[in-house]
Design goal:
single chain, alpha/beta, Carbamate kinase, eight-stranded mixed beta sheet, 12 helices, binds aspartic acid, binds magnesium ion
């Protein structure tokens, strides 16, 4: 007998018929002799609807009250599912975040879980009841309702799995797993049987659509095995596990692309102590996240500095840098919004040499120019012209042996 946490996302509970389908899946798992704790999202579109409603009251709703409002979405689905289960003669109890003792900090709208007092859940489990917990919500130490950020019910589920020391945390969603590339642009992309926490954390553009990134950090910290799978089929999905449990020994597990960044270059910047700080401090103060940074080698006491920022912040960042360039006597500032960042990710890189050269050679064969390069232990990223993003993903996917029917 196992203890299984099952989280169902918005599309899986989009209407009563789908919640009925969830009830059946939960019951099936119980009948197989398991204890089940269910964590639910709000019905698809409901959180957006609530946000919209608040937006009609005021453009900047009070954060505390907004969380009280947003938490109602999950309250509805939890109560409905518990009701259905009871009606099918399975004892069940719904618990809201505060009732399940999901204690968070006071960062309304993006709260972090500090601890979960699992005793209430355990009492119900002792009685062999099904516990249905409203995801996405908790409360601070004063008892005020908080929410965990968009997609936060994934983190609720993983945190509850960690607190209960569950055997597995199953995330039921509308995709059937994690793919080696975005199947919309790479027809040969295939579903991975397993992926490590670190790879998943690095696959932000592929993975973040499926799991809230914070839930993956949580799973890694507490070593919770996570199974991402579809709620509309019985097929196995993708296991997100620690590195040692990954069965597939791939050098590269995925190729991702990101078109959300823009590049800014400051040309002929004086090469002196304190200059980088002058360039980046105002960007940080403006709350703009910098991703890649490259500084060229010194020539004639000057250097060029290039970095990337989210496209949405490009205009603001350019304005800031134009001012800074004057202050520090840099020759000029220019930028480019039409870029894409292509990354290959894999823990196998740690023990294999030549991954970077395969990547560069593959791009070279297609005559794709590399504008920037950055590397980490398990990832190599190249910035290229945006128009080549799809082609780059496809050729790299093939070059690293990821195409369907290979290496399986
Ligand atoms: N309902 C929340 C959202 O739409 C939380 C979640 O579904 O995970 O973001
Ligand atoms: Mg989600």
């Amino acid at each position: 007998m196992g203890l299984i946490i099952q989280k169902y996302g918005g599309t899986s509970v989009a209407d009563l018929k789908r919640i009925q389908n969830v009830a059946k899946k939960v019951i099936k798992t119980c009948d197989q002799g398991n204890l089940v704790v269910v964590v639910l999202s709000a019905m698809a579109g409901v959180t957006d609807g609530l946000l919209n409603m608040a937006g009609q009251v005021t453009p900047s709703p009070d954060k505390r009250e907004l969380d009280v409002l947003l938490a109602t979405g999950e309250q509805t689905t939890a109560a409905i599912l518990a009701m259905m289960l009871i009606n099918m003669n399975y004892p069940a109890y719904s618990l809201l975040g505060y009732q399940a003792n999901v204690i968070t900090d006071r960062e309304y709208g993006n709260a972090r879980i500090l601890e979960i007092g699992a005793q209430r859940i355990k009492e119900f489990l002792k009685k062999k009841a099904i516990v249905v917990i409203a995801g996405f919500q908790g409360c601070d130490i004063k008892g005020d309702i908080t929410t965990l950020g968009r997609g936060g019910s994934d983190t609720s589920a993983v945190a509850i799995a960690a607190a209960l020391d569950a055997d597995i945390c199953e995330i039921y969603t509308d995709v059937d797993g994690i793919y080696t590339a975005d199947p919309n642009i790479c027809k040969k992309a295939r579903k991975l049987k397993a992926i490590s926490y670190d790879e998943m954390l690095n696959m932000s553009s592929l993975g973040a659509k499926v799991l809230q990134i914070r839930s993956v950090s949580f799973a890694k910290k507490y070593n919770v095995p996570v199974h991402v799978r579809s709620s509309f089929s019985e097929e196995e999905g993708t296991m997100v596990v620690n590195e040692d449990s990954c069965m597939e020994q791939l050098v590269v597990s995925g190729v991702t692309h990101n078109k959300d960044e823009a590049r800014i270059t400051l040309k002929k910047v004086p090469d002196q102590p304190g200059i980088a700080a002058k360039i980046f401090s105002p960007i940080a103060e403006a709350g703009i996240l910098v991703d890649m940074i490259i500084q060229n080698t010194r020539a004639g006491g000057q250097t060029d500095l290039t970095f990337t920022v989210p496209k949405a912040d490009y205009k603001r960042a350019m304005e800031i840098e134009h001012k800074i360039a004057k202050e520090i006597a840099a020759e000029k500032v220019f930028g480019d919004k039409n870029i894409a960042k292509i990354s290959v990710i894999g823990v196998g890189m740690k023990n294999h040499s030549g991954v970077a050269s395969v990547m560069f050679n593959t791009l070279c064969r297609e005559n794709i120019n590399i504008i920037m390069i950055s590397t980490s232990e398990i990832r190599i990223s190249c910035v290229i012209e945006e128009k080549y993003a799809e082609l780059a993903v496809q050729v790299l996917h093939t070059a690293f042996g990821l195409d369907e029917n290979e290496n399986i």
